[in-house]
Amino acid sequence: MTAFKPRIIIVDDNETFRRSLEFHLTITLGYEVIGNAADGEEFLTLNNIYNADIILMDIEMPKLSGIAAAKKVLEHYNYLKIIAITDYQDKAYLLELIENGFKGCVFKKNIMNGIEIAINEIMNEKIHFPSDMEIIKNE
After folding, report:
1. In 3D, which of 96, 95, 78, 83 has the Cα closest to residue 126?
2. What is the mean pLDDT of residues 53-62?
3. Rounded CA separation 21/112 (Å)
4. Are 82 and 74 in contact (CB under 8 A)?
5. pTM for this one?
6. Is 29 part of any domain?
7. In this predicted model, what pLDDT tens digit does every residue of 79-120 receive, in sequence order?
8. What does the chain look like in DSSP terms, one character per residue?
9. Are 72 and 44 in contact (CB under 8 A)?
10. How many CB atoms lie within 10 A of CB 40?
């Protein structure tokens, strides 16, 4: 019996971070990274979005933020499971992410240790948000 390997797209404006995360996901965890993009606009032009099981999306990016990109892509592919990845613990608001379709969040400082748990929970129809996230709604 072969274990299911989720197909992942990484969206982050830091190329070094994207490459490191892709290495970790493919080599260490055995997942399949099927694409990556440097910002929300580039992500929306990928021709294989519909093949992804998981989107790892930075929420603070130039051109088009991760929240705006998630909102747009979910209009067409509402089955996608999007996980926010961010450096900004003080700018990541739980209600804002949930309202915009995110199924989870992992802070970049914990990404190598926390991403496998987040992916597994979300692939099993759960949500995954850090317990220390702000529960504030942006007005």
Report:
1. 83
2. 94
3. 8
4. yes
5. 0.91
6. yes
7. 999 999 988 665 557 788 888 999 999 999 989 999 999 999
8. -PPP--EEEEE-S-HHHHHHHHHIIIIIS--EEEEEESSHHHHHH-TTGGG-SEEEEESS-SSS-HHHHHHHHHHH-TT-EEEEEES-TTT-BHHHHHHTTEEEEEEGGGHHHHHHHHHHHHHTT--B--TT-B-----
9. yes
10. 25
Does residue 93 lie in a domain region?
yes
Q: Is 2 inside any structural domain?
A: no
Look at the chain and report how many structural domains it folds into. Answer: 1
Domain around 27: 7-123
| Residue 113 to residue 51: CA distance in whole angstroms | 26
The CATH number of the domain where 88 resides is what?
A: 3.40.50.2300
**What pLDDT score does 139 carry?**
47
Q: Evaluate whether residue 24 is within a structural domain.
A: yes
